[in-house]
C-alpha cells in the first residue's frame, strides 16, 4: 500500500468521524511481524502495521514510511488485542470480600434497570493483569452472585445493563455503554424465578410484553392513567433498546431445549439474541445458525456439572462453528474474572479439538466486537489500534505479549504479580532487605 | 491376600480389634501401635494382566530430570522394564510407534475432590466436607467417593493416573484423604493405591474461621485457628502415649477414638499432613507447630505465597502444591505471582502443580507449561525435563508413593502417558494412558475410553454421554 492511499484512507476515516482530533500527530510502526489482520487481508506472512493517532493507517509488506517510533516484530506474531466477551472487570477486586464487589444486587428492588457503570473502577488490579495477558477491551456485565452471603437470596431474572472498557486503566476508559441486557434461563433462571425454568421464561416474556405496552402507551403510563404494571418504569425504559432490536438480550442457557426456547422467544419479540453458555449448543447448532444467534461459550467446560449441561464437550465450539454459528470464547468460568485473559487458553483448547485456527483467534476478538457492536478485533486501515505483539502463537500456553497497544498507546505490562516476583527475587536495598532469603 | 483377610477379620472382630493387623503392630511389645489402620478398608486394586508394551523411538521425559530423545520404553508385568535404544520386543509385545511422540510418567494430582464433589453437582452429592465441627479428623474422604463420578474418566483423558482425594477445607482438621489410581471400580477400595499412606487434611486461614466464626463458635480468627490445632495435638500426644504405654506395658486397653487415632497417626509418622495454606506467615507458623509437636508436614496446598517462604520450605523439607495463575477469589489468594512454582523449585524445595478442580485436573500439562513459562520470564532456565517433575515425581513425593511411581525408572509401576507432541503445549493430547501397564485410555479407540455408569443412556438412551 502506498502512502497516497494511506492518506486517502486516513482522510476517509477522518471524514467518517472515526478519528478524534489528533492531539499530536504520533506515528508508530510495527515492523516485520506475522500479522493476523482477522480482516479481509487475512494473514500476512511478514508485514508492517502503521499506526497514526491511535488508528491503523496501513497494513502491508515493507511500508516505506518514517515513524516516530518503531517496534521490531520480526519473528513475532501480531494480532488484534483480545476482547473479553464477559467480565466483571472494574466491578470486583476480591471474590470473597463483599465490600469489593459491585456486580450483583440482591432483592427485588431493581432488575433490568440495574446499571453497574457508576461502580466501575479503572484502577482495579485486575485490569493491568489481564492487559499483560493480551486483553485490550472487555465487556463488563452484572451477574448473579451465588457466593458467600448471597447464597439463597432472591435476585431477579434480569441482571441488568452492561458496558465496554478499554484496559488502559484510565478514568475515561469506558468506550461504550448500554450494550446488552443480561438475563438468566435454565437452572439459574429457574432458581431466581421461584423454582422453575418455566417461571424464568414467563418473567422474561412478561417484562418484554410490558416493555412493548410501555412503548405504545408511554404518556398514559407516565401520567398514571394506565393499569398497574409489574415492572418499574426504569426497568421498562431499560428494555426499550431490546424490543427495538437495537441492543441484544444476552440470555444464559445451556440445555438444548432451553436454547430452543430462547430462540423462539427472540423470534416472538424480534429480539437480537446472544446466547451465553450454550453447553449443549452443538445439539441445536443448525437452529442457532439459522436464527443467526451468536453464542458466548466457555470452551474448557466439558463437565456434566449440571443436569442442564450433560452434553458438555470440548469440541462444542468447533461443532457450532462448522454449523455456521458465530461464537465468542469467554475466559474459563473456573478461573473467574481475575483471569479472563485465559480465554486464549480456552480458544487454544477449542482449536486442539477441531476449531479452525483463525476462527479461534476471531472467537476472542473479532467476533466479540461484532456481537456487541464495539470497535476492535481487526487490523485494517481505520481500525482502532488495539494491537498485541506476541512472542509466539497467542493461543499457546507458553506465549505471552511483548507489546500491548491500546488505541495506539504502548501499555505497561507490569502487574502486582511481576512486582511481587521481583521484590522476592531481587530485594532492593533499604527496607526491602527484609525480603531477602 | 492372606494379610488382608487377617486384617479384615481383625477390624470386625471386636475382641481382637487392633491386636492382629499388620503384623502385631498394635499389641506387640515394643511395637508402634497402628494408628493408621491402613487395612481397615484395604485396597482391592489389582493389576490387570496385560501384554508387554514397547514404545519405540519417542522423546522421554523421565521425571528424574532427564530428556531422552529417540528412546524405547518397555512395559511388562505392570512395571517399567527397560529404557534404552533399539530394545528387543518380547514375543507377545504390542509395539507402539513413538516417532514424534513424547512420553511422561502418569500425571499425579495431589489435590482433587473427584467422587466427593462429583458431577452433576447437586445438593445430594456434595459429600466433600463434614462442616459440623472444626475438628473432623475422624472422617475419611474415601467413604464419600462416588466411584461413578464421570469426572474420573475425563481426568484420565488428561493423563492423570493417580490422585489424592481430600476432604474440604472448612475445618482445621478435615479428615483423612485417600490416594487412588484413576481406574473404574465398583468399590472405592478397587481404586485405592496399594500401600499409599493416608493423608490428614488440615486447613489454615480464611475458611475455618469464616465457617465456624460465622456460627459464633471457635475459631473466628487465625489465632483461634492455631489454638485449635495445638489443643488437638496436645490431646493426640496423650492418646498416642496411652497406646504406646499399653503396647509396652500392657494393662487396661485404652478406648479407641477415631478422631485422635488419625492425629496420633500423624504424630507417629504413619499419616501425612496435607495442609491447605495460602499465606507465607501462616505456613511458617504451621511449620513451628509441627516442630512443637514433633510431626512433619508433607505439603502445603494452594500455597499461593510459597515464594515468600521458599527457603523455609526447603529447610523444613516441606513440599508446596500450587496453581499456575489462580488468584483473587479470596484475600489470602491476592498476592499471587505466576513464577511461584519456579521460585520454590529454584530454592530447592519440592514444588508441584495441583488442580483442586475437575477442569484443571484435565489440563495439568498446560498448567505446568504456564508455570514453566513464568519461570523462564523470571530468569530461570527451566526445560520440559525439569518442569515435568512438577506434575509427576514431586507429587509422588508429597503422597509418599515415590518409590512406586512418579518417574520412568526401571521397576516402577508402568504409569505412563504417550503424548501427541511436547506435552507443554495447548495442542498436545494424551493419546495413550497406561496404568500399571494396562492401556486404560486410547484417544483413537472408543473401546479404550472408560465410561462411568452415569454416562450410559444420557441424552440418548442407546448411547453414552458424548
Could you characterize the architecture of this molecule?
The complex is a heterodimer of chains A (437) and B (466). Chain A has 437 residues and is an alpha/beta fold. Chain A has helices at residues 3-15, 126-132, 186-192, 197-216, 218-223, 233-243, 256-268, 285-290, 316-322, 343-352, 357-363, 366-372, 416-425; strands spanning 27-36, 43-52, 55-60, 69-72, 77-80, 82-84, 135-140, 158-160, 163-166, 174-177, 181-184, 249-253, 273-277, 295-297, 327-329, 387-390, 401-406, 409-410. Chain A contains 13 helices and 18 strands. In chain A, strands 1, 2, 3, 4, 5, 16, 17 and 18 form an 8-stranded mixed β-sheet that branches. The model of chain A is unreliable at 1-23 (pLDDT under 50). By secondary structure, chain B is α/β, with parallel strands linked by helices. Chain B has a domain at 106-408: TIM Barrel. Chain B contains 12 helices and 16 strands. In chain B, strands 1, 2, 3, 4, 5, 14, 15 and 16 form an 8-stranded mixed β-sheet that branches. In chain B, strands 6-7-8-9-10-11-12-13 form an 8-stranded mixed β-sheet, sandwiched between helices. In chain B, helix 5 packs across helix 6 (258-267), helix 5 (222-249) runs parallel beside helix 7 (280-293) and helix 9 packs across helix 10. Chain B is globular. The chains are: A alpha/beta (437), B alpha/beta (466). The interface between A and B is large, with 46 and 54 residues.
Count of DSSP H/I helices of chain B: 12
The greatest interface between two protein chains, and residues involved on each side, is:
A-B, 46 and 54 residues
Radius of gyration of chain B: 22 Å
Shape of chain B: globular
Number of DSSP helical runs of chain A: 13
Amino acid at each position: 500500500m502506498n502512502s497516497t492511499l494511506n492518506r486517502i484512507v486516513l482522510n476517509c476515516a477522518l471524514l467518517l468521524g472515526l478519528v478524534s482530533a489528533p492531539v499530536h500527530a504520533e506515528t508508530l510502526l510495527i515492523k516485520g511481524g506475522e500479522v493476523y489482520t482477522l480482516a479481509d487481508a487475512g494473514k500476512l506472512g511478514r508485514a508492517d502495521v502503521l499506526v497514526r493517532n491511535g488508528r491503523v493507517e496501513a497494513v502491508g509488506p515493507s511500508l516505506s514510511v518514517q515513524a516516530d517510533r518503531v517496534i521490531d516484530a520480526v519473528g513475532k506474531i501480531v494480532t488484534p488485542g483480545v476482547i473479553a466477551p464477559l467480565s466483571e472487570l472494574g466491578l470486583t477486586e476480591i471474590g470473597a470480600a463483599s465490600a469489593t464487589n459491585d456486580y450483583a444486587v440482591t432483592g427485588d428492588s431493581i432488575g433490568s434497570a440495574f446499571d453497574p457503570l457508576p461502580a466501575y473502577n479503572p484502577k482495579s488490579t485486575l485490569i493491568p493483569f489481564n492487559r499483560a495477558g493480551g486483553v485490550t477491551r472487555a465487556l463488563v456485565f452484572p451477574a448473579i452472585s451465588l457466593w458467600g452471603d448471597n447464597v439463597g437470596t432472591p435476585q431477579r431474572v434480569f441482571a441488568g445493563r452492561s458496558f465496554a472498557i478499554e484496559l488502559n486503566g484510565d478514568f475515561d476508559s469506558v468506550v461504550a455503554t448500554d450494550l446488552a441486557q443480561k438475563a438468566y434461563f435454565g437452572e439459574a433462571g429457574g432458581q431466581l424465578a421461584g423454582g422453575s425454568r418455566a417461571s424464568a421464561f414467563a418473567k422474561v416474556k412478561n417484562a418484554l410484553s410490558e416493555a412493548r405496552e410501555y412503548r405504545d402507551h408511554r404518556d398514559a403510563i407516565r401520567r398514571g392513567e394506565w393499569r398497574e404494571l409489574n415492572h418499574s418504569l426504569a426497568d421498562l425504559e431499560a428494555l426499550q433498546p431490546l424490543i427495538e432490536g437495537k441492543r441484544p438480550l444476552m440470555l444464559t442457557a445451556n440445555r438444548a431445549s432451553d436454547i430452543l426456547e430462547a430462540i423462539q422467544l427472540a423470534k416472538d419479540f424480534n429480539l437480537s439474541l446472544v446466547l451465553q453458555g450454550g453447553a449443549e449448543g452443538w445439539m441445536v447448532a443448525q437452529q442457532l445458525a439459522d436464527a443467526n444467534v451468536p453464542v458466548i461459550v466457555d470452551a474448557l467446560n466439558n463437565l456434566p456439572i449440571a443436569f442442564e449441561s450433560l452434553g458438555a464437550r470440548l469440541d462444542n465450539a468447533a461443532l457450532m462453528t462448522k454449523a455456521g454459528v458465530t461464537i465468542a470464547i469467554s475466559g474459563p468460568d473456573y478461573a473467574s474474572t481475575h483471569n479472563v485473559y485465559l480465554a486464549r487458553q480456552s480458544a487454544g483448547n477449542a482449536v486442539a479439538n477441531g476449531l479452525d485456527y483463525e476462527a479461534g483467534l476471531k472467537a476472542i476478538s473479532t467476533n466479540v466486537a461484532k456481537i456487541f457492536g464495539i470497535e476492535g478485533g481487526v487490523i485494517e486501515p481505520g481500525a482502532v489500534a488495539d494491537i498485541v505483539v506476541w512472542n509466539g502463537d497467542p493461543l499457546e500456553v507458553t506465549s505471552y505479549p511483548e507489546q500491548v497497544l491500546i488505541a495506539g498507546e504502548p501499555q505497561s505490562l507490569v502487574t502486582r504479580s511481576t512486582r511481587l516476583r521481583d521484590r522476592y527475587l531481587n530485594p532492593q536495598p533499604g527496607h526491602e532487605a527484609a525480603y531477602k532469603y | 491376600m492372606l494379610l488382608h483377610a487377617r486384617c479384615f477379620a481383625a477390624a470386625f472382630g471386636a475382641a481382637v480389634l487392633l491386636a492382629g493387623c499388620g503384623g502385631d503392630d498394635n499389641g506387640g511389645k515394643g511395637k508402634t501401635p497402628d494408628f493408621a489402620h491402613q487395612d481397615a478398608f484395604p485396597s482391592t486394586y489389582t493389576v490387570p494382566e496385560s501384554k508387554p508394551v514397547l514404545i519405540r523411538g519417542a522423546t522421554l521425559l523421565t521425571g528424574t530430570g532427564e530428556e531422552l530423545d529417540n528412546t524405547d520404553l518397555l512395559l511388562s508385568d505392570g512395571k517399567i522394564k527397560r529404557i534404552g535404544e533399539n530394545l528387543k520386543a518380547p514375543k507377545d509385545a504390542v509395539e507402539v510407534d513413538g516417532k514424534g511422540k513424547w512420553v511422561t510418567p502418569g500425571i499425579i494430582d495431589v489435590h482433587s475432590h473427584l467422587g466427593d464433589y462429583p458431577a452433576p453437582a447437586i445438593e445430594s452429592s456434595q459429600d466433600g466436607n463434614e462442616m459440623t465441627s472444626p475438628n473432623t479428623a475422624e472422617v475419611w474422604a474415601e467413604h464419600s467417593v462416588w466411584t461413578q463420578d464421570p469426572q474420573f474418566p475425563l481426568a484420565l483423558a488428561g493423563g492423570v493416573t493417580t490422585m489424592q482425594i481430600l476432604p474440604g477445607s472448612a475445618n482445621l482438621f478435615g479428615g483423612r484423604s485417600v490416594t487412588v489410581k484413576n481406574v473404574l471400580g465398583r468399590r472405592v477400595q478397587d481404586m485405592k493405591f496399594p500401600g499409599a499412606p493416608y493423608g490428614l487434611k488440615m486447613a489454615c486461614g480464611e475458611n475455618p474461621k469464616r465457617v465456624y466464626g460465622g456460627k459464633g463458635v471457635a475459631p473466628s480468627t487465625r489465632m483461634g485457628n492455631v489454638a485449635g490445632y495445638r489443643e488437638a495435638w496436645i490431646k493426640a500426644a496423650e492418646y498416642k502415649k496411652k497406646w504406646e504405654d499399653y503396647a509396652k506395658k500392657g494393662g487396661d486397653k485404652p478406648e479407641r477414638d477415631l478422631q485422635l487415632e488419625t492425629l496420633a497417626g500423624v504424630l507417629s509418622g504413619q499419616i501425612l499432613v496435607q495442609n491447605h495454606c495460602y499465606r507465607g506467615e501462616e505456613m511458617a507458623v504451621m511449620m513451628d507447630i509441627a516442630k512443637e509437636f514433633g510431626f512433619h508436614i508433607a505439603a502445603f496446598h494452594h500455597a499461593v505465597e510459597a515464594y515468600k517462604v521458599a527457603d523455609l520450605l526447603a529447610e523444613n523439607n516441606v513440599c508446596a502444591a500450587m496453581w499456575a495463575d489462580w488468584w483473587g477469589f479470596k484475600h489470602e489468594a491476592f498476592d499471587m505471582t505466576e513464577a511461584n512454582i519456579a521460585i520454590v523449585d529454584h530454592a530447592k524445595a519440592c514444588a508441584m502443580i495441583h488442580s483442586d478442580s475437575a477442569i484443571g485436573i484435565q489440563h495439568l500439562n498446560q498448567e505446568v507449561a504456564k508455570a514453566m513459562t513464568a519461570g523462564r520470564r523470571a530468569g530461570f532456565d527451566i526445560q520440559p525435563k525439569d518442569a515435568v517433575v512438577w506434575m509427576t515425581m514431586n507429587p509422588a513425593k508429597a503422597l509418599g508413593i515415590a518409590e512406586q511411581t512418579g518417574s520412568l525408572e526401571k521397576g516402577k509401576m508402568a504409569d505412563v502417558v504417550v503424548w501427541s507432541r511436547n506435552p507443554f503445549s495447548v495442542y498436545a493430547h494424551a493419546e495413550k494412558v497406561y496404568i500399571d501397564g494396562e492401556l486404560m485410555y486410547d484417544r483413537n479407540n472408543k473401546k479404550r475410553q472408560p465410561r462411568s455408569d452415569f454416562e450410559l443412556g444420557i441424552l440418548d438412551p442407546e448411547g453414552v454421554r458424548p
